[in-house]
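Hi L.,

As promised, RWD domain-containing protein 4 isoform X2:
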Amino acid sequence: MELEALRSIYEGDESFRELSPVSFQYRIGENGDPKAFLIEISWTETYPQTPPVISMNAFFNNTISSAVKQSILAKLQEAVEVNLGTAMTYTLFEYAKDNKEQFMENHHPVHSTTSINNIISVETPNTAPPSKKKDKKEQLSKAQKRKLADKTDHKGELPRGWNWVDVVKLSKTGSKDDE
């Protein structure tokens, strides 16, 4: 029942995503908003008698400090306790939307670029330096060189139409097959 209700309520909402029939994601805030975050709610087998699993481990949330994530999860857990025994996924998403500013008041974007640069600089020395071997050029015999020189003009270019097919020869052989 709750699954059908969620599908009908959030139909056409770009922020809502159904990962599976028991797992859902909702983006709180607009795309590009530095205070936007993603909540993932997964139902357990005994849901709604037992609380759902709430996660903020999505890649989208990498700029949010772990302290802010823990704070948001703690506030959502309080809402879960109040609604235990009832269908609460929609309630939790709406609660997060209504309290977004309060949840993110201590948010200062964490830039992970320094850690990525550190990882790259650590991995770089381990890679093998590119080999300095020169690729061997294909060796041509004297006869091959002469034949190539005969085909080309004094500039080393092939004459116009050197690879054209003789249409007259083809039309004669083609007409024999038609007979």
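The CA atoms of residues 23 and 145 lie 69 Å apart.

Thanks again for sending the construct details.

K.
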